[in-house]
Amino acid sequence: xxxxxxxxxxxxxxxxxxxxxxxxxxxxxxxxxxxxxxxxxxxxxxxxxxxxxxxxxxxxxxxxxxxxxxxxxxxxxxxxxxxxxxxxxxxxxxxxxxxxxxxxxxxxxxxxxxxxxxxxxxxxxxxxxxxxxxxxxxxxxxxxxxxxxxxxxxxxxxxxxxxxxxxxxxxxxxxxxxxxxxxxxxxxxxxxxxxxxxxxxxxxxxxxxxxxxxxxxxxxxxxxxxxxxxx
Length: 231
Known about the structure:
By secondary structure, the protein is an alpha/beta fold. It has 6 helices and 8 strands, in the order E-E-E-H-E-H-E-E-H-H-E-H-E-H. The chain is globular. The mean pLDDT is about 95.
């Protein structure tokens, strides 16, 4: 069984092509700017049997154009690690392209790599102490899982929060340029408040990123040969 709070199709924003996107219930982080706070509690909105999900995805194959497939996102998919591992294996066995978007904190995440065709990891902050303060969790395992994915396809989404991490461009570059980034892509995601209306009490101080700051990041990543894309 998988606990899911939302399903639907999306084109290119959650992996390549047209994709069936499953938002899994439960998250181990507590990011106060989260756009899907309804996905944080473990309490389930709906439970779906894995075999039914695979059958549904198989019926959707004609919709998976331009390299599409199934994306697991959240919440945080690895909160339901065992069920997710089984689902990824079954989807691949059915010839369906797989993608997962994760916060990268699960210590067993690399076990899933052989069954993930397109891996997306969110990177919230380069400094562990601030990462813990902002999200409630360390970034040590996140970095370890990024490093374990070197040489594989990996898309890293950097959450930019003005006043919290946008002054640390050199720190981002120092970390990523030491890695094998030949198969990595990067996406810069400036702070937004799309989830504000979902919170009972949204109390995160606005952290909108100035356009010149965003452009400075883009230019610096280009100069460092870090492939920055927009989905």
